[in-house]
UniProtKB/TrEMBL annotation:
<feature type="transmembrane region" description="Helical">
    <location>
        <begin position="145"/>
        <end position="165"/>
    </location>
</feature>
<keyword id="KW-1003">Cell membrane</keyword>
<keyword id="KW-0812">Transmembrane</keyword>
<protein>
    <submittedName>
        <fullName>Sugar ABC transporter permease</fullName>
    </submittedName>
</protein>
<feature type="transmembrane region" description="Helical">
    <location>
        <begin position="113"/>
        <end position="133"/>
    </location>
</feature>
<dbReference type="InterPro" id="IPR035906">
    <property type="entry name" value="MetI-like_sf"/>
</dbReference>
<dbReference type="Pfam" id="PF00528">
    <property type="entry name" value="BPD_transp_1"/>
</dbReference>
<keyword id="KW-0472">Membrane</keyword>
<feature type="transmembrane region" description="Helical">
    <location>
        <begin position="301"/>
        <end position="323"/>
    </location>
</feature>
<feature type="transmembrane region" description="Helical">
    <location>
        <begin position="246"/>
        <end position="266"/>
    </location>
</feature>
<keyword id="KW-1133">Transmembrane helix</keyword>
<feature type="domain" description="ABC transmembrane type-1">
    <location>
        <begin position="108"/>
        <end position="322"/>
    </location>
</feature>
<feature type="region of interest" description="Disordered">
    <location>
        <begin position="1"/>
        <end position="44"/>
    </location>
</feature>
<comment type="similarity">
    <text>Belongs to the binding-protein-dependent transport system permease family.</text>
</comment>
<feature type="transmembrane region" description="Helical">
    <location>
        <begin position="191"/>
        <end position="216"/>
    </location>
</feature>
<keyword id="KW-0813">Transport</keyword>
<dbReference type="InterPro" id="IPR000515">
    <property type="entry name" value="MetI-like"/>
</dbReference>
C-alpha cells in the first residue's frame, strides 16, 4: 500500500518559499538606487561643487570688499597714482618719502599715544563695569541698557554732543566758570584735545566690551569665589586672584581688538579737531592723514596707499605682540 504522505516542501519551491529577499542595494561599486531614489525618494549623490556653490556668495562679497581693495592698495603704494591719473611704478619712493614727512611722524606719534591711553582703560574699566551689572538686583536691566546705549549711538551724534559740551561756550566750561575755575581749552589745546578724544572713545566702547566680559564672567565657577572667601580673601584680593586669571583670555581678546581700533582712530579726532587736525595739525592721526592726502581731485592715491600699508603692518604687529605676551604668560 502506497504512502499518502505528501512530499515535504522545501525553500526552493516558489509556491512555498514566498517572494525572494530584497537586495540591500549595495555591491562592490556602492549603493544601487532604483527609479524611486532617482526621482527624489532616496539618497541623492552630492556633486563635488555643491559646497562651493553655497560658499560662493560669501566669497564674492569678501573678495569684492576686502581682498580686492587690499591688493589694490598694496599695488598703488608702489606707484605715483593720483585721483585722475593712472600713475607709474616708482618702487619704494613713497615709503622713502614717508621718512622725511613731518606730518607722517606726527600722525604716528598721535596714533601710538592713542593706543597707550585708550587700551588700558578699555581692558580694565569694562571688566569692573561687568562685575557691577552682573548681580541680579531689581532694576539692573535698566543700567545694562544705559551702559550699552553709547555703543549703538552714531559716532557722528556722539562726537557732536561732546563737542557742544567741551566747547569754550559749552556746558562743561559754563559749569567751571560758575564754580570759579575758569574756562579750559578742551578743544583748543593740543594735548587736551587728544585726551578729550580718548575719553570719547573709552566712553563709547565701555558697553561693547562690558558685554564680552559678562559672557566670560558667566563661565567662572562660583565655587572659586566661595573658597577664596572662606580663606579670608576680600573683594579686591578675589578680583586679583580669582576673577582676573579666569578671564585672562578675554582680557587678551579685548586688548587686541581695542589696540587695532585705537590705532586706526579717525571719527572721534576728526569730529573734535576738524579736518585740519587741531592747532597746526598737531592732533592728526595716520588715518586722518590718509584721508587728507588721498582724497580730492589732486589726491595722491599712491602716497596715501603707502601710509595705509604702514597702518596695516603696525596693526598686525600689535596683534602679534598681544598674542605673544599671552603665550609667555601661559608658559
Amino acid at each position: 500500500m502506497k504512502s499518502t504522505t505528501a512530499p515535504r516542501a522545501t525553500s526552493s519551491d516558489p509556491a512555498v518559499a514566498g517572494p525572494p529577499p530584497r537586495s540591500s542595494g549595495f555591491g562592490r561599486r556602492g549603493p544601487r538606487h532604483g527609479p524611486a531614489d532617482r526621482a527624489g525618494g532616496g539618497i541623492r549623490r552630492q556633486l563635488p561643487t555643491s559646497p562651493w556653490l553655497f560658499a560662493a556668495p560669501g566669497l564674492l562679497i569678501v573678495g569684492a570688499f576686502s581682498l580686492y581693495p587690499f591688493l589694490s592698495t598694496l599695488i598703488n603704494s608702489f606707484t605715483d597714482r593720483r585721483t585722475l591719473v593712472a600713475g607709474e611704478f616708482v618702487g619704494l619712493a613713497n615709503f622713502a618719502e614717508l621718512l622725511d614727512d613731518e606730518m607722517f611722524w606726527i600722525g604716528l606719534r598721535n596714533s601710538t599715544l592713542y593706543v597707550l591711553g585708550v587700551v588700558p582703560a578699555l581692558v580694565l574699566l569694562p571688566l569692573l563695569l561687568a562685575l557691577l551689572v552682573q548681580r541680579q538686583i531689581p532694576g539692573i536691566t535698566f543700567f545694562r541698557s544705559a551702559f550699552y546705549t553709547p555703543v549703538v549711538a552714531s559716532i557722528v551724534v556722539v562726537g557732536l554732543i561732546w563737542v557742544w559740551m567741551l566747547d569754550d561756550r559749552g556746558l562743561v566750561n559754563s559749569l567751571l566758570e560758575i564754580v570759579g575755575v575758569g574756562k579750559i581749552g578742551f578743544l583748543s589745546d593740543q594735548w587736551l584735545l587728544l585726551m578729550s578724544a580718548m575719553a570719547v572713545t573709552v566712553w563709547k566702547g565701555l558697553g561693547y566690551y562690558m558685554i564680552i566680559y559678562l559672557a566670560a564672567l558667566a563661565n567662572v565657577p562660583r565655587e572659586l569665589h566661595e573658597a577664596a572667601a572662606v580663606d579670608g580673601a576680600g573683594a579686591v584680593r578675589r578680583f586679583v586672584t580669582v576673577t582676573m586669571p579666569a578671564v585672562r583670555s578675554t582680557m587678551v581678546l579685548v586688548g587686541a581688538l581695542s589696540s587695532v581700533a585705537a590705532f586706526k582712530v579717525f571719527s572721534e579726532v576728526y569730529l573734535m579737531a576738524g579736518p585740519t587736525g587741531g592747532p597746526a595739525g598737531e592732533d592728526t592721526t595716520l588715518v586722518m592723514l590718509v584721508q587728507r592726502v588721498g582724497t580730492g581731485l589732486s589726491g595722491r592715491v599712491g602716497y596715501a596707499s603707502a601710509i595705509s600699508v604702514v597702518v596695516f603692518v603696525v596693526t598686525v604687529a600689535l596683534m602679534l605682540l598681544v598674542l605673544r605676551a599671552d603665550r609667555k604668560e601661559d608658559a
